[in-house]
Amino acid sequence: MKEASAANLVVVSDERALAQALAERVVELGRQAIAARSRFNIALAGGSTPKATYALLTEPPFRQALDWKRVRFFFGDERCVPPDDEQSNYRTAKLTLFDGLSIRREATFRMHGENEPEAAAGSYAAVILRELPLDHLVPTLDLILLGMGPDGHTASLFPGTDPLEDDELLVRAPYVEKFSTHRITLTPRVLNGARDVIVATAGPAKADALAAVLHGPRDPATYPIQILEPRAGRLTWLVDRAAAAKLPPS
Ligand code: 6PG
What is the best residue among 80, 81, 110, 146 to mutate for testing ligand 1's pocket, by most ligand atoms within 8 Å of CB? Predict the structure, then answer.
């Protein structure tokens, strides 16, 4: 992983400031994508960190700041549960973002966590191949939002499940020992094919991992998020002071 330069590491005061900064970036990148290509293809992150951003996007000024009819929503990963399960990343996005913006169902492309994992991964690969422009044969998203776990995972690339940096596949369904379940996840091939990748992480629980990920030795088997090196795109780390507490002074 390239060391995070000052250019791509943004430290904000707290989680509220992070939600605001992330909402601003989503809208700005969305406007640029729509101006250039008439649509904005974004993959949403799961977990709890992005919820505040999603809620902000449904309110003024963000609600009016983007032509949401031109936005299409994909997912970086999903739990192997039905879409109405409280663990579902799709359900979280629906309740905190899609419903508030009256996003048409046809503009959302969820991973079918209710299906057999391998089959769900294969069908999602077909969806992104069909719905997204290809660059170097890889479905290309305008923006992928990601979080980071305290163990250095991202999407559903967890320590102990080989992150398969040169994975030929676009979507996988790894078995995650930690949760004794499968997950469905975009592979590094897709994550690193995006025009923009933003990792948004906050809180003291992420400080050790963030320092190891950004300034420790490259070891993606231990810290899978270190596979993030967009081929031609831009990687931005958007973190709050608590998560940045163990980074060397810039
Ligand atoms: C998921 C996410 C996962 C998440 C991190 C951080 O499905 O849970 O894809 O990678 O982004 O675990 O989660 P928090 O934002 O809740 O800390």
Answer: 146
**Per the structure block, which two tokens stand in for 202?**
């906050």
Q: Residue 201: CB partners within 8 Å, gap ≥ 6?
A: 49, 147, 148, 210, 237, 238, 239, 240, 243
Q: Whose CA is nearest to atom 11 of ligand 1?
A: 147
Beta bridge partners of 184: 78
- DSSP annotation of 98 reads I
Distance 29 CA to ligand 1 centre (A): 22
Which 3 state secondary structure label does DSSP give 10? strand
Band of the pLDDT at 160, cuts 50, 70, 90? confident
Residue 120 belongs to some domain of the structure: yes
**Binding site membership of 152 for ligand 1 (Cβ less than 6 Å):** no
Q: Are 170 and 125 in contact (CB under 8 A)?
A: yes
Domain count, the chain: 1
Q: What is the pTM of this model?
A: 0.96
CATH number, residue 34? 3.40.50.1360
Let me know if residue 245 belongs to a domain.
no
57: its two tokens = 């996007």
What does pLDDT average to over the chain? 95
Peptide bond into 61 cis (omega under 30): yes
Query: Does residue 57 fall inside a structural domain?
Result: yes
Which residue range(s) make up the domain with 212? 9-240
Query: What gap in Å lies between CA 244 and CA 238, rounded to an integer?
Result: 10
Q: Is residue 87 part of a domain?
A: yes
